[in-house]
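FAQ: What does a ligand-bound record look like?

Like this one, built around guanosine-5'-triphosphate:
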Amino acid sequence: MASVFPDLSVLGWDDGFAASLKPDHLPARVTRVDRGTCDVLTADGETRVVHSGALKRAAAADPVALPCVGDWVALRGELQEVLPRRSAIVRAGVTPGVSHGQVLAANVDVVYIAEPAVPGVDLGRIERFLALAWESGAQPVVLVTKADLASVDLSEVAAAAPGATVRAVSSTTGEGLADVRIPPGRTAVVLGRSGAGKSTLVNALAGAGLMATQEIRAADGRGRHTTVHRQLLVLPDGGLIIDTPGLRGVGLYDAEDGLSQVFSEIGELADRCRFHDCHHEAEPGCAVLAAVEEGELPERRLASWHKLQREAAWMASRTDARLRAEKTREWKIIHKSMRGRNRP
Ligand SMILES: Nc1nc2c(ncn2[C@@H]2O[C@H](COP(=O)(O)OP(=O)(O)OP(=O)(O)O)[C@@H](O)[C@H]2O)c(=O)[nH]1
Ligand SMILES: [Zn+2]
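The answer part, i.e. the structure of the complex:
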């Protein structure tokens, strides 16, 4: 049988990943995950694999060990292990009462943050997604979608996204799409609220090619894929794209570095605050508050910084509390066994 992908580099494979693959394992890239199984692409095309016992045990101890879309994994019959990730989009897990990270996508090069021009661009939401994106290790690009419906002041968006490219795109007219193309072997993920136009954008980038390779929806035969799952797709001109369902409540998890990149100008101003540990709330000699006063820094931007900082600190405190609880439990077990030993 002829290989579908004789050269795995079109799927993003390279020497770095190859170095962590054991000799008797086959490499595969995860396109979609389900409970206990994954759809993967190998040199021979798409197949479904089940998790090995060892992988299940590792995942029970730490959910982050579970494969996610975009992962490179090692197969030997079953899915044996997840190869070290080069980038990972992690949000706060949703299990009540427990703080843990949930990996949304791995090994992505570019994060497209889709924010619709209509009903109106929400800069705070863009900043939240940017924190996740910077933290992941991938390069964020902000796409103001549905640009045919309203014109948006991109400079205002750019001011909320230092270091990131901002573009207006329309899947309806094709505006801006040429600049959003993904080179062969590179992977992009599209994040954004429900209805932001993510799936329409993916379909527009795919053109007719996607219809040929993805299942045609029987009811209307239009070949559109509906986003229920996160899914990695191979575009006709070689790039890889991960579509995600609209995210409700994207909690920040361990995103302090990401936040400082989103608000880099506040960090620079803070260097000039009188107090090293200034909270930029009411302190005398606060350079950040002075910048707001002088109209240099939008008040909205500082408010957003405060909000996301508080959230990150709260998440960090919850994680620490859990670690502390574990330590206490450990200590109690040791204490108990000592007591047992001292018994006559
Ligand atoms: N006018 C216009 N409408 C668009 C454009 N892109 C998407 N839409 C419409 O916006 C609606 C939502 O688009 P989707 O692509 O389904 O949005 P999504 O982000 O994938 O939504 P979820 O799957 O719920 O996360 C649909 O009715 C699209 O037809 C665009 O560029 N211009
Ligand atoms: Zn200050």
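Follow-up question: can I read anything off the structure? Yes, for example: Residues 95 and 102 are 10 Å apart (CA to CA).
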